[in-house]
Each structure stands twice: as C-alpha cells, then as structure tokens.
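anyone seen this seq b4? input:
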Amino acid sequence: MELTELELSSAARCDAALISYPHGAAAELVAELRSGGVAVVDVSADFRLHGLTTYERTYGAHSAPELVGDAAYGLTELHREKIAGAKLVANPGCYPTAALLALAPLAEAGLIAEVASAASGVSGAGREGGDRLHFVNVDENFGPYGVEGHRHRPEIEQELAALGVEGRVTFVDLFGPLPEGYVTVPRDDPEALRDAVGERTAAVLIEPVQGEAGVFPIQDEVLLAAREACDAGEAILIFDEVQAGMGRTGSLWAYEQLPVRPDALTAAKALGGGLPVGACITVPELGGVLGRGDHGSTFAGAPVAAAAALAALEVIDDPELLRGTRELGAGFRDALAELDGVAEARGRGLMVGVSLEEGLDAERVAARALAAGLVINVPCPGMLRFLLPLVVGSEEIEIATGALRELIG
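predicted toks r here
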C-alpha cells in the first residue's frame, strides 16, 4: 500500500470516498467531493445531525451548511434502504451506535426509552490529555465525563425521535463499568416505582416537575406510590427542587401543592438570588445524619451566600407574589394551548412546557423567537420550555403569546 498526498483533481475521478478527518475539518472536503459527483462516507460528526442549529450548538460553526440534512444516517440496522441509494452517508458515533441498537426495538414496540447509560475505556474519552486520564486516577476507579453536555446526546435524540420517541435523553457516559446502586424507572409508572424499591433501597429521588426533560409534572399517583414504597421499605424520599423550588411553581416549594411531603429536598440556583449556593433541607428526624465536618461544599453555607439566601427567601415567600405566579402561569398555559401548532401546554406556575404538533421544528421557532426578542429554551426535539421570572407581568405574557402566535403558526 502506498500513501500519497490527497489531490482533489485525482479524487474527483473516484466513484466513492471514505473521509476520516475530524469534525470541522471534514465538511469542506466533503463539499468539494460532492460537487464533483463523488459519493462520500464521512466518519466525522459533520453530517450526522440534520439540523444546522443543533450542529452549531453542539460543535460550532459549519463550513458546508448547505449539505446539512442531506446525509443518510449510517446505521444500517435502521436506515438500510436510504443508505443504499445515498450519495452522502454520515457514519454514526460510537455511543449512538451502541445506544440506538439497544433502544430501537423498545421504541418500535411502543416502550418509552428515556435513559442511555454508556461506558468506555480511557481511549474513548476524547483526544485531549489531562489529569483525569492518568493511571492513578483511572485504575480501579469510575468517573463520568461530559455530563449533560456530551456531543453524542443530540444524535441519539434525533434518531429516537425518528422512531417516535420524543423527549430529552438522559445520557450518562462514564469510564469503566456502570456502577451498581442506581435504578431508573419510567416517569409515569407507579407500579414500576413500587417494584424498584426494596429492603436495600436507601432513597428514592424525584424531581417533582421534571424541568430539563421539557417540564413534566410528576403524576400524583407516582408520588403517592413513592411515599408508600419509602415508608414500607424504610427508605427516604428526596425531591430535587433546584428548578421547581423557590416560588417557580406558585408555592415556595413545589411539594406544597402535592399530596406527599418528602423527607429531604435539594435547593440551589434561585436560592441564592444570583449568588452560588446550595442546600439540602430535611425533616427533623434526619437532622443528625450529617455532623459537623462530615460534608464540605464550595457553595454551601458561606456567610455571604447564606445572607443572600435568607434575603431571597424573604422576598419570594410572599403569599401575594406566589398567588400571582400561579394565576399568571395558568393563564399563560391556557393561552399557549389555544395556539395553532401547539399539541400540549403543561406545567405548574411559571414553569411551562409546550409540545408542538408533528412536523414543526422547535429549534426554528426558538431561533425566530430570539430574533424577535423572545428567549425560549428547546429541551428536546418538538418541545419548548419557558421558565419565566417571578417579576413577569400580564403585559409581558400577552406580548410573548402574541409573538408565539405568529412564530409557531
């Protein structure tokens, strides 16, 4: 075999080319080859994602945006016919290949697949060196990387959406084997939750309104099942109220509007009123679990942060403010539900999620909204998320609703 410098004039005489450049470097070469009529299989990530906005948010600027969306996704088990006739094939990533081959049968059977856990050795942890890859840190150890920001997650979400599974994928990528001890159950299945809690269960952790997933309030039946299972198994029930707490749902804590009370809850972000702070709040029976010096935290009870948290609590724990949050949120959801193109509007208080009708591009809606001065989050394909500030008024909500009427329609 002889290796020679690539000459595009010679490559143009080929029927097909396999490109193994890194993402960002491959796109320009692929564009030149395709303009010459050469069929291309691209190993990089440059053409795996069908949406330009998603690509740019994940990888940065694209040097051949006109080709984005043209490639067949190169997983033959899912796209054999399309690949056979394609002129541009985007080879899938390693994690998406493993995850999708496992999740696709569940999706096709109508089962909801929401979590993908994956593990690799050090060689799969990227090109950059660092302390985290040194032997002393890796040997007999296990650690996550790219948490909530791994570049393969949008790829998995895109392909699952094509199979009818809409939603944000919780993708956990780690060095080594998946640690035992954590069990995930479907969001709306109380029986699955009951079955997962046993005599060795220490705690059940629930986000009462799932924010990152697209704003999904957990059903009362699931919460009651969690409380009953914890009581029967002597486990503790923990609510993650980092997003839902501090007045966002119309009560100081989200659990105050629910049929159960947790044994502990976590709070952060809004708790500090702009300063970094976190807290774990428990019932009196758990107050002695952690003693002085048992647990340290950079953003815990430092004097300035604690003062900020007390000031934030004093302002937000206001019955009139919280009542207004509930009323404005209910009105906003009702208005959104009536818009053409909206399949569902849900949430609690000023924590609102919208599912768009099939065929509407949430990324495009959000981009157009931003150009019009309205900031909207897209937690997953086909969904919009609104986390309105507690100082919002009815006038601002009317303006936003009017803008969305034009943007979505």
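The mean pLDDT is 86. Residues 14 and 38 are 6 Å apart (CA to CA). kinda curious what u guys think
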